[in-house]
Amino acid sequence: MRHLFGSVRSRATLAATLVVAVALVAAGAAVLLSLRSNLIGQAGTQAEHTARSIATELSLGKTTGQLDLDEDEEPVQVVDENGKLLAVTKDLERISGTVTDAVKRQPTTPAATGDQSDEDPDDDSDAAEPLEPGDIDDRTTFTNGSATMDHESADYRFAAVQVETEKAGTLTVYAGAPLSAEQGAVRTALTVMLIGFPLLLAVVAAVTWLVTRRALRPVEGIRGEMAAITASEDLARRVPVPDTHDEVARLARTTNETLAALESSVERQRRFVADASHELRSPIASLRTQLEVGAAHPELLDVSGAVEDTVRLQRLATDLLLLARLDAGERPAADARFDLAALAREKAEGRAGVTVQASEGGVPVAGSRGQVGRLLTNLLDNADRHARSAVRVNVRRAGEWALVEVADDGDGVPEDDRERIFERFVRLDAARSRDDGGAGLGLAIGRDVAVRHGGTLTVRDATAGGAQFELRLPTIAQDRA
Questions:
Q1: Within 10 A of 95 (CB to CB), how many other CB atoms are there?
Q2: Low-confidence ranges of the chain (pLDDT < 50)
Q3: Are residues 109 and 15 in the same domain?
Q4: Phi/psi of residue 458, each to 5°?
Q5: How many CB atoms lie within 10 A of CB 176?
Q6: Are 146 and 154 in contact (CB under 8 A)?
Q7: Distance, CA of 28 to CA of 194 (rounded, Å)
Q8: What is the pLDDT of residue 215?
């Protein structure tokens, strides 16, 4: 049972069926009540018509004995104001719902036909005005009851109409109309509903089941393909995209975009590991060779070369560790603030041919001073390797940004390579070599640090003809700094 209702299709089918069932029950109840009310109203109209016809005869001077009620097929009673039965339908055997259950005409007595106008047993100030002889009361009273006519019992709607006569005083005419049509119609409608509603609910459930299965078929295809990708670990595969413009198609496209990003990330990670292994192999092999030679021939040990390889290996390990932290999503502390101009002067100190120009009052920024310092060091090292004679550093504000420009007078960077140089382990053949100590990680680290601080790192042509690297970081207000 849990597996059955764990399906979206099953839950959708059950929900749709329940909603339709509630709607059908409410609509069916409203229809039955409306049908019953209309039919009872029709029966009441028919009974009132019969009662007023008899009351009209009485108002015109006919006595109760002169009334011809034998032709009436429905129950009729005429009673006086004391409830005594004065006229009745011939075949009436039993009656209920009127003022009296008598079915036999009772003899008229002087007390019954006397003038009752002087008696006022119920002094009600809100009572209707008394009727004059020959008047028929405009009001009609309706009641429900039953009667037996010619050995057949049925339910009736009774209408009571009062008429004022000159001889018998106030008489009340009770006339009934059968409710068999109402009861039969209600029973028929109820039977149709009891049979039709389950069939309609079954159709709704079946249609909902089929429609949801068709709608969710692409989702099942996506799930199956994702399971296959997980089993095969082949991130080059993609899920099928349905030829629609709905949420499922957008889900498939988003899934493929996620797979593409994951594939790119895994491929980048593989290249990173391969390139790191390759870069580490050279200094380790060189250091091992020198140590092995020194162990066999101490007089031939190149101590300075071993130290240089060790330092190079240490720098490479530090770069790889920093990249790993950046890839892990390490964010700089937002409350750490420092002066970017002072940091640039600090990193440029002691470098030959490097001049620093900074704005008065400093350029405050927020973030990791160590990471930004490493970024500036990498830019200065890169400029030193490519400059012919001079490197210029300019630190200033540019609107809401802190701008650092590091320009050299070297050969510059070809336009086609201006994005590629920021990739990891990328060295331009004519510009870099392992002998220079570059592993192709400095600019990649620099861009990652800039992005982590909410900034950018780009390169363009310098005015002196070389390359000019531009670092933009969000600045902060002077008072906050």
A1: 25
A2: 1, 110-126, 430-435, 437, 479-481
A3: yes
A4: -130, 170
A5: 32
A6: yes
A7: 10
A8: 81
Q: Are residues 399 and 351 in the same domain?
A: yes
CB 71, CB 84: distance < 8 Å: no
- List Cβ neighbours of 413 (8 Å cut-off, separation of 6 or more): 421, 428, 459, 467
Here the tokens at position 292 are 């092995």
pTM beyond cutoff 0.70: no
Tell me if 90 sits within 8 A of 74, measured CB to CB: no
Encode the chain in three state secondary structure: CHHHHCCHHHHHHHHHHHHHHHHHHHHHHHHHHHHHHHHHHHHHHHHHHHHHHHHHHHHCCCCHHHCCCCCCCCCEEEEECCCCEEEECCCEEEEECCCCCCCCCCCCCHHHHCCCCCCCCCCCCCCCCCCCCCCECCCCEEEEEEEEECCEEEEEEEEEEEEEECCCEEEEEEEEEECHHHHHHHHHHHHHHHHHHHHHHHHHHHHHHHHHHHHHHHHHHHHHHHHHHHHHCCCCCCCCCCCCCCHHHHHHHHHHHHHHHHHHHHHHHHHHHHHHHHHHHHHHHHHHHHHHHHHHCHHHCCHHHHHHHHHHHHHHHHHHHHHHHHHCCCCCCCCCEEEHHHHHHHHHCCCCCEEEEECCCCCEEECCHHHHHHHHHHHHHHHHHHCCCCEEEEEEEECCEEEEEEEECCCCCCHHHCCHHHCCCCCCCCCCCHHHCCCCCHHHHHHHHHHHCCCEEEEEECCCCCEEEEEEEEECCCCCC
Tell me the pairing of strands 354-358 and 391-398.
parallel
What CATH number has the domain bearing residue 271?
1.10.287
Same domain, 337 and 306: no
Q: What pLDDT is recorded for position 335? A: 63
Amino acid letter at 135?
D
Q: Among 9, 31, 33, which Cα is nearest to 197's?
A: 31
Distance CA 100, CA 174 (A): 10
257 and 190 belong to one structural domain: no
Give the tens place of pLDDT for each residue, 360-410. 888 999 998 989 999 999 999 989 988 888 999 999 998 899 999 999 988
Parent domain of 395: 331-474
Instruction: Give which of 401, 393, 397 is closest to 360, Cα–Cα.
Output: 397
Residue 18 lies in a domain: yes
Which tokens hold the place of 13? 């089918």
pLDDT of residue 431: 44
Give dist(CA 157, CA 145) in Å, integer. Answer: 6
Q: Determine how many CB atoms are found less than 10 A away from the CB of residue 400.
A: 9
